Amino acid sequence: METLIVILAVLFLALFILVPLLEKFAGKGGGRINPKLAKWIFPLMAAVIVLQLIRYYFG
């Protein structure tokens, strides 16, 4: 149980350190998604969900 608490503490500490650093050094266009990539996101996510359902019920 204490291992889990240590892991969670390290993850939260890394989160509080990395998020401000990433926001500070991010480029000006960092929030934009490539249109060629954007058209594939929803079909791929749908395929992942379907495959996970198949794996859950038949695996």
Topology pattern, helix = H, strand = E: HH
Compute the separation of the termini in Å.
30 Å
What is the helix fraction of residues, given as a range? over 70%
Find the structural class using helix and strand composition.
mainly alpha
Query: How many strand segments?
Result: 0
| Global morphology | flat
Tally of separate helices = 2
Return residue spans where pLDDT drops below 50 for at least 5 consecutive residues.
none
Main sheet specs: none
Rg from alpha-carbon coordinates: 18 Å
How much strand?
under 5%
The number of domains is: 1
**Average pLDDT reading:** 85
Q: Any overview of this molecule?
A:
- The chain is mainly α and 59 residues long.
- It has one domain (2-58).
- It is 81% helix and 0% strand.
- The protein has two helices and no strands.
- The protein has helices at residues 2-25, 35-58.
- The chain starts with a helix and ends with a helix.
- The mean pLDDT is 85.
Keywords:
2 helices; mainly alpha; flat; single chain; 59 residues
